[in-house]
Amino acid sequence: MYDVIQLLKEKELKATPQRISVLKELGRKTHPTMDDLYEALKRENPSMSLATVYKNIATLKEKGVVIEVNVADGKMRYDVYSRPHIHLVCQGCGAIEDIDCDESLYQYQACLEEKRNIKIERMDIIASVEFCSLCQKEH
Predict the structure, then answer these.
(1) Alpha-carbon span 44 to 129, nearest angstrom
(2) Any idea what the Cα angle at residue 112 is, between residues 109 and 117, rounded to 5°?
(3) CA-closest candidate to residue 105, choices 84, 89, 79
(4) What is the C-alpha to C-alpha distance for residues 122 and 96, in angstroms, rounded to an integer?
(5) Where are the domains of the chain?
(6) What would you report as the CA-atom Rg of the chain, rounded to the nearest whole angstrom?
(7) pTM of the model
(8) What percent of the chain has pLDDT over 90?
(9) For the domain 84-139, what is the CATH code?
């Protein structure tokens, strides 16, 4: 788990109660849609509006704290980008699992940067599988 306050500080963002709530909810690793996120946050803080959630997600995305995970169902999902990782998306049940990167991904990034003479800010990688470990238990 990451330190929410430290993560905001590193990105030069104020640690507002709304941002802290959004990051804590995203930290539960459920990769929620905007509607799911709003419903969860509203349970904790009934006065929080959908506009506030959108505004905070937009700010956190702009600063690279939060990323969008685009999955096949067309509903954007959200996740904290506290460390590089791959999203394993199940086409069977829709589950999204975070997989830590190994050294070879960093080597590939360095190779790509050198070949193209660019600096990659972040690599967002989605790996799709037909069935995940949850689905396979049912088959």
Answers:
(1) 34
(2) 120
(3) 84
(4) 19
(5) 1-82, 84-139
(6) 16
(7) 0.82
(8) 63
(9) 3.30.1490.190
